[in-house]
């Protein structure tokens, strides 16, 4: 049982079409059946489930969701991507983060910044799941300050020579192909992007991070030492990467927000099940105590409010439709909400919540990353204020 049903009304923000409803039902069923059981073990061992990831393409068919059908994808919208991320994150947010890095940070990003020749070489491999993708943007000394990056590409004949280090790269140790952001001049305020393969000479994987949460998703450094990249792997034009980077950040932020929704939803479900069906104190069901009612009621209301915002913003996004203000707001609200709700769940379950018998402590650890990745919440606050200032200055 869940606090959310998949019954479709005549108008439904969360399942606006039959395709969206069918997608939610199939992903929800797969996630409960396949993700839940393996999540605890892979969190404890910090292991990436390669075989299960492949099945997302071969069996579930959810790679290329936002790629047009004529190019081998499903031709759906960012809202469909939000549905997938919410449903999968109920059971394994870490595994879902690797899906996000592949599907959003690589597939969607690559498709909308590449040309026909590049798509013919790479798209089918990542849509089938033959190859795993990722993105290289963050650096040891340049996270939120993305223009402070120092990874440099120098043109030499028919190729580019790239040197630098990328930090905290999801799928870094398991991926075969990455969208990589660089500068042609270290002092420039413009960026240039490439599609690069892990097999390229000069490409290596650095240290694997030992993380608090999202432990079933591998996070590593990527190191480039005189890495040679063919000029045909330039995405778009030189110094033109900021536009498609910012466009992709918006869908990244709403899908990270959707992961927060999945975490919160599972936590509320667990709190309700535990306090109504299982736990009694002083001869009464735990749900009958006012202190517990407050924690559960506020968690449910916070989840529903954040969910409405995230889905509304996602419904308004598209490859040619920008909404920086909405995407930043959705991420800020949803990620803060997930941390509160997962912490409430630990408190409601008491000792059981603090121990690993129930998944709420893992979900809380996973939730914390979502206020950091894709732009910190402090950056979201800055972006929101900046966008509002522009609106009121017009």
From TrEMBL:
<dbReference type="InterPro" id="IPR036250">
    <property type="entry name" value="AcylCo_DH-like_C"/>
</dbReference>
<dbReference type="InterPro" id="IPR009075">
    <property type="entry name" value="AcylCo_DH/oxidase_C"/>
</dbReference>
<dbReference type="InterPro" id="IPR006089">
    <property type="entry name" value="Acyl-CoA_DH_CS"/>
</dbReference>
<dbReference type="InterPro" id="IPR013786">
    <property type="entry name" value="AcylCoA_DH/ox_N"/>
</dbReference>
<feature type="domain" description="Acyl-CoA dehydrogenase/oxidase C-terminal">
    <location>
        <begin position="244"/>
        <end position="386"/>
    </location>
</feature>
<dbReference type="GO" id="GO:0050660">
    <property type="term" value="F:flavin adenine dinucleotide binding"/>
</dbReference>
<keyword id="KW-0560">Oxidoreductase</keyword>
<dbReference type="GO" id="GO:0008470">
    <property type="term" value="F:3-methylbutanoyl-CoA dehydrogenase activity"/>
</dbReference>
<comment type="pathway">
    <text>Amino-acid degradation; L-valine degradation.</text>
</comment>
<dbReference type="GO" id="GO:0006552">
    <property type="term" value="P:L-leucine catabolic process"/>
</dbReference>
<dbReference type="Pfam" id="PF02771">
    <property type="entry name" value="Acyl-CoA_dh_N"/>
</dbReference>
<dbReference type="InterPro" id="IPR046373">
    <property type="entry name" value="Acyl-CoA_Oxase/DH_mid-dom_sf"/>
</dbReference>
<dbReference type="InterPro" id="IPR009100">
    <property type="entry name" value="AcylCoA_DH/oxidase_NM_dom_sf"/>
</dbReference>
<dbReference type="Pfam" id="PF00441">
    <property type="entry name" value="Acyl-CoA_dh_1"/>
</dbReference>
<dbReference type="Pfam" id="PF02770">
    <property type="entry name" value="Acyl-CoA_dh_M"/>
</dbReference>
<feature type="domain" description="Acyl-CoA oxidase/dehydrogenase middle">
    <location>
        <begin position="135"/>
        <end position="227"/>
    </location>
</feature>
<comment type="similarity">
    <text>Belongs to the acyl-CoA dehydrogenase family.</text>
</comment>
<keyword id="KW-0285">Flavoprotein</keyword>
<keyword id="KW-0274">FAD</keyword>
<dbReference type="InterPro" id="IPR006091">
    <property type="entry name" value="Acyl-CoA_Oxase/DH_mid-dom"/>
</dbReference>
<protein>
    <submittedName>
        <fullName>Putative acyl-CoA dehydrogenase, short-chain specific (SCAD Butyryl-CoA dehydrogenase)</fullName>
        <ecNumber>1.3.8.1</ecNumber>
    </submittedName>
</protein>
<dbReference type="InterPro" id="IPR037069">
    <property type="entry name" value="AcylCoA_DH/ox_N_sf"/>
</dbReference>
<feature type="domain" description="Acyl-CoA dehydrogenase/oxidase N-terminal">
    <location>
        <begin position="17"/>
        <end position="130"/>
    </location>
</feature>
<keyword id="KW-0101">Branched-chain amino acid catabolism</keyword>
């Amino acid at each position: 049982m869940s606090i959310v049903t998949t019954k479709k009304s005549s108008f439904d923000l969360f399942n606006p079409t039959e395709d969206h409803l069918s997608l939610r039902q199939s992903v929800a069923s797969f996630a409960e059946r396949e993700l839940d059981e393996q999540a605890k073990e892979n969190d404890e061992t910090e292991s990436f489930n390669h075989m299960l990831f492949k099945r997302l393409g071969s069996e579930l068919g959810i790679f290329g969701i936002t790629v047009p059908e004529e190019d081998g994808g499903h031709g759906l919208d960012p809202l469909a991507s939000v549905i997938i991320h919410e449903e999968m994150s109920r059971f394994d947010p870490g595994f879902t983060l690797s899906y996000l890095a592949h599907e959003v940070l690589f597939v969607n990003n690559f498709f909308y910044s590449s040309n026909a020749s590049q798509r013919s070489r790479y798209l089918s491999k990542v849509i089938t799941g033959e190859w795993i993708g990722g993105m290289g943007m963050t650096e040891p000394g340049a996270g939120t300050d993305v223009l402070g990056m120092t990874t440099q590409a120098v043109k030499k004949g028919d190729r580019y020579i790239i040197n630098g280090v990328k930090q905290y790269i999801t799928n870094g140790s398991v991926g075969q192909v990455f969208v990589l952001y660089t500068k042609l001049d270290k002092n420039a305020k413009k960026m240039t992007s490439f599609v690069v393969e892990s097999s390229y000479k000069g490409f290596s994987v650095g240290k694997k991070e030992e993380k608090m949460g999202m432990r079933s998703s591998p996070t590593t450094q990527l190191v480039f030492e005189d890495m040679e990249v063919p000029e045909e792997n330039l995405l778009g034009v030189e110094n033109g990467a900021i536009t498609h980077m910012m466009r992709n950040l918006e869908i990244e932020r709403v899908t990270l927000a959707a992961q927060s929704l999945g975490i919160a939803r599972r936590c509320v479900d667990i709190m309700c099940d535990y306090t109504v069906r299982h736990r009694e104190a002083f001869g009464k069901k735990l749900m009958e105590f006012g202190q517990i009612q407050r924690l559960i009621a506020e968690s449910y209301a916070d989840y529903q409010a954040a969910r409405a915002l995230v889905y509304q913003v996602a419904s308004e996004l598209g490859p040619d439709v920008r909404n920086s203000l909405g995407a930043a707001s959705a991420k800020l609200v949803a990620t803060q909400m997930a941390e509160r709700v997962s912490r409430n769940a630990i408190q409601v379950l008491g000792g059981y919540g603090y121990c690993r018998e129930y998944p709420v402590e893992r979900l809380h650890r996973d939730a914390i990353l979502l206020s950091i990745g894709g732009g910190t919440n402090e950056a979201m606050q800055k972006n929101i204020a900046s966008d509002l200032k522009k609106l009121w200055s017009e």
